[in-house]
Specification:
The protein has about 625 residues and is α/β, with parallel strands linked by helices. The chain contains 25 helices and twelve strands.
């Protein structure tokens, strides 16, 4: 089903947004014929026939929120856990026989009999799980699978699975170079460029601060205000205490830079865990213009942590791609920028000043960095001078809910060298609760002399058009949770329609993700486990989607929570389940049965509405 938006004036759109504010945070308006009564009392089903009635009842029971009050003498209910569940158990496959990696790749092991890993392929094959159905995606793509006998599709390799003499076409770039970890650990990498720039920038800032203190002592405080604060902006007490430095010198903009045009483009936000490379490829299939890797910590990159470098990987299809860095030290951020500039292929680098997670903010990174404008100046100026590609900044409205500060910081970071600024219309304290404040984003856009990107609550093409009309000066809209719930939103925006996507089409999308995941993480047991886990993390968002044909009104709003409902077919009902056990069933349709010791707990507990999403263990 598709609809065409009716052209309206900016004032009408603004009034429309305010009129809808009550319904945005309510319950999704699902047609009565699809609603399920909750709670549903489970009844004995006839001999496990697996009929749709029993499955619908189980879904309704699992989707019903726990509403019973604690009886007298019970312990008081615990506060609902929010944010990342870092203490969750994580499944990792194990094998009694560990093959040597060189034998797996079809090469000769230089250690011979002294190798601590097994060279007995027959012994490994005897204990490994059986092959999965279908062709090996890596062998089909490259004509060679590096996982050899450990591949769960090894029966389809044929007898010619030997490593090629040349690498052939490169599909993924930005891998951690083999020699780089040793060079970094032994301090042999030459960071003179970044260090010299950082030293000069910090000395310049210190000189400015000293000059201002001297002026203050002779009663020239008015001159300080004229030279340090952007025109038309007032300082908060915290910024006054932390930012005593002036604007940057203009010569940092003199050299030629690569250019990225963000205006009018669809932009997929950097998303922790779920914004992985296979997911970004799915979004590219649906038409997203710009993609960005997951947030990477600068210090971890400088320590050559392979897990952190994996966040920089780029697929060939990502024609406009950036990486996001988080850090709190001028020298470390400058070095990380130089390292990426010299070893990776990226179109822009983004500074994270919006992450609300406690462990990040408490270290002075993410949203916590915005509280220290002097440090922000050092980081932005240093990275801007180090890089030949554009430097962008992503920030929130402010740290505290009722004290926005982004409008004071934006003109400064532009003067310090930022080519584009993204503003999330919430404070750090809000995290992802309440509605994004697009009125404030509009105010920030009026102060920006570079493209400003708005972020928050975009969930349909009508949302995008309303927000762009409301703000006027916003150059583009960034998609985050909306893309996780319905990645086909990029197609909807470009074609200006509501896509009533069927359950079979959504299953094909998951099949595509499975293929991309196996190509990226591998086709051995570990790669299949990673693909399954990342798919489950994504399903903890996907189940929130309510099909267009089931809604009483359009467009749907991202803050509206769906009540228990049944779909138009059994698969659509399964995909709407909030029960993690049903998510595992979906992965088993694509990746085969789970191991007997498999367990899964969603990383982001705040994404789960019902208690049934807390965990699942294979039986």
């Amino acid at each position: 089903e598709s609809r065409t938006a009716t052209p309206t004036t900016t004032s009408t759109r603004r009034a429309c947004l305010h009129r809808r504010s009550d319904s945005m945070t309510g319950v999704a308006p699902i047609k009565k014929e699809y609603l399920l009564q909750a709670p549903v009392v489970a009844t004995a089903a006839p001999a496990s026939n697996g009929g749709p009635e029993s499955k619908l009842a189980a879904t309704a029971e699992s989707a019903a929120p726990a509403a019973s009050a604690p009886s007298e003498g019970d312990a008081p209910p615990r506060k609902r856990a929010r944010g990342m569940n870092k203490s969750r158990p994580q499944y990792r496959p194990t094998s009694t026989v560990k093959l040597c990696s060189r034998i797996v790749e079809g090469r000769v092991c230089t250690y011979g009999d002294a190798c601590k890993f097994s060279h007995d392929i027959d012994a490994f094959v005897a204990v490994r799980p059986p092959d999965l159905d279908g062709l090996c995606p890596i062998y089909s793509l490259k004509g060679y699978c590096r996982f050899g006998p450990t591949c769960r599709f090894s029966g389809t390799h044929g007898s010619s699975n030997m490593p090629p003499e040349s690498e052939g076409e490169v599909w993924e770039t930005n891998e951690l170079p083999r020699e780089l970890p040793n060079r970094l650990r032994k301090h042999q990498y030459d960071f003179a460029k970044a260090d010299n720039i950082a030293e000069r920038v910090l000395a310049d800032i210190q000189e400015q601060q000293q000059l201002e203190r001297e002026r203050a002592r002779v009663g020239r405080a008015d001159d300080i205000a004229d030279t340090t604060a952007p025109e038309g902006s007032a300082r908060t007490s915290e910024i006054e205490a932390n930012d005593e430095s002036g604007s940057t010198k203009p010569e940092i903009h003199a050299r030629e830079r690569k250019k990225v045009d963000f205006r009018g483009k669809t932009y997929l936000a950097p998303l922790t865990t779920v914004g992985n490379l296979p997911f970004r490829r799915v979004c590219k299939d649906f038409g997203v213009d710009i993609t960005c890797g997951e947030m990477a910590m600068a210090t971890n990159l400088l320590q050559a942590q392979s897990s952190e470098w994996a966040l920089l990987r780029r697929h060939k299809c990502e024609d406009v791609f950036g990486v996001q860095l988080a850090g709190n030290a001028v020298a470390a951020m400058g070095r990380a920028a130089q390292l990426i500039e010299e070893t990776c292929n990226v179109d822009f680098i983004d500074i994270n000043m919006g992450c609300p997670i406690d462990v990040v903010c408490n270290r002075g990174c993410g949203a916590g960095l915005a509280l220290k404008p002097t440090r922000v100046q050092g980081i932005v100026r240093t990275m801007s001078e180090v890089l030949s590609c554009p430097l962008t900044v992503k920030m929130r409205m402010g740290y505290e809910m009722d004290k926005p500060t982004a409008h004071k910081l934006i003109p400064k970071v532009i003067g310090w060298g930022a080519a584009t600024v993204t503003v999330h219309g919430r404070s750090r304290q809000q995290r992802y609760s309440k509605l994004a404040n697009w009125d404030y984003i509009s105010e920030c856009a009026s102060l920006s002399t570079v493209p400003l990107i708005g972020n928050g609550d975009a969930f349909s093409y009508e949302d995008v058009e309303e927000k762009m009309a409301l703000t006027g000066g916003v150059s583009a809209v960034m998609f985050a949770r909306g893309a996780l719930v319905k990645p086909w939103i990029f197609t909807e925006v470009k074609e200006r329609r509501h896509w009533d996507i069927s359950s079979s089409e959504r299953l094909e999308m998951l099949k595509t993700f499975t293929k991309y995941g196996l190509e990226h993480w591998g086709t051995d047991e570990l790669g299949i486990s990673r693909t399954r886990n990342f798919m489950l993390e994504w399903l903890s968002f996907l189940y929130r989607y309510v099909p267009v044909g089931l809604l009483e009104r359009l467009p749907a709003r991202i803050q509206e929570r769906p009540p228990a409902f049944c779909g138009r077919d059994e698969l659509e009902t399964l995909m709407a389940s909030s029960n993690a056990a049903d998510w595992v069933k979906i992965t088993e349709m694509l990746l085969g049965p789970c191991p007997t010791d498999f367990n899964f707990v969603p990383k982001h507990k705040a994404n789960a509405y019902a208690a049934s999403t807390d965990s699942i263990t294979a039986e």
